[in-house]
């Protein structure tokens, strides 16, 4: 199925205010902050635990932080690693690195030393800006990397002054909070806040990076193998923020965006950090996701837009019901990373009176590429339609030169201004996914209806081949989630000799009497009603919980590794 740019049939399903194409300005990502400071200077840009920073002050802090990085010897093209929770300092550091023409490398601040080592070595980062709790891990691996300076951030320094004072009180509550927010600072590191105070801001005429320059290395691929750095240019990130703006049609200078997704993840970085600056929104930053914190903030600075994943919306809605909290200000919520059930969507929309919009993307698309319309026509459980200026193809999984027809399963190919430039230092892996004329192989299997609305089926790299037949894990998982006694499930394949792979169900049991009857025979009997024989699990593993990514996506690769490491505990 080929959808040429000239006759994109999905455009007929766009809401009236969404354009077929967007104009991507030829500018650096930071240009949006400069405009916001000029247009909305007195508006709060970031609110962190009650302490606000205006757009004018944010722009000044970014210039001063860029001066601090310049004093550390950072020059255009250098990689600067950021390993911070969501906070004001994270936003300042992000834009400061870009202001110098250097490249941001985002990291999960709770990564282990081993995980950080690979990414720091791979990127060649020369400076690390990290949380106090992350600093010991960075210091422990510094000698194996190109890192020459480590600047440490105290999250408490971003808090309101009254809360900073309370944090010092000799009471248990303050001690607990100190333990959560702060940590020991290793010798040989630098204090980020001191560097900021002493630095001279970069001049207004300091050269800006070009739109074609690299802005960000975002590591991805952790669910399928060794993480690799996706190269995202300023143009990629600007384009995706412009596309999100066109899709949601939010009001410039009048929105409040909740930053409950981590900025170090592509989804949170675009929809919480760069998008909010482009539309001049107030962004409320949460250092970690907690429904109680969201509802507390809702009383003080009510949200109008929120991006998250299904479990987040479930937990917020449940607690709001329990507490009688008002969520009616949230007009649009955007969900990604995993399917949204009709039940979750209905519960959220009943609570808010707004819309819960499901979308799709990947790190390699900055990350947004497909979304449901922001209207009553949205369909929970589907990915929706290609974004403006985005083309799609759906091709045979084994032959990307052959397009499949409507209703047929195929791999999704994407092309648009948000598609990345390749993997850092990995030309072979880049060539495997970036085809001629800019088409990106997503590795995701989808089905399209006649209107080109997409539904996700599975990932090609996670498909199981058994006896020559293809098994789609998501299809089996969806069936088993409806089985009494099963709370959650991941389907993986393990080596099975000449047969290829063997289907294994890793199951989390629910706290009900029905869970006592969940064994391999019961699972197979349940599946036999709806699945082909080759797709029925041959083994069962009972787990206390499923491993998940920072935004809640089940890590099938980790499940598979655990199954292989504990075959003696498998019930077969």
TrEMBL record:
Gene Ontology molecular function: any one: long-chain fatty acid-CoA ligase activity
UniProt keyword annotations, A-Z: Ligase
Taxonomy, superkingdom: Bacteria
Boundaries of every AMP-dependent synthetase/ligase domain copy: 34-424
Start and end residues of each AMP-binding enzyme C-terminal domain: 475-553
Cited Pfam families: AMP-binding, AMP-binding_C
Enzyme Commission number: 6.2.1.3
Enzyme kind, highest EC tier: ligase
PANTHER family xref list: LONG-CHAIN-FATTY-ACID--COA LIGASE, NONRIBOSOMAL PEPTIDE SYNTHASE PES1 (EUROFUNG)-RELATED
Name of the protein this chain belongs to: Long-chain fatty acid--CoA ligase
Organism whose genome encodes this protein: Pengzhenrongella frigida
Taxonomic path: Bacteria, Bacillati, Actinomycetota, Actinomycetes, Micrococcales
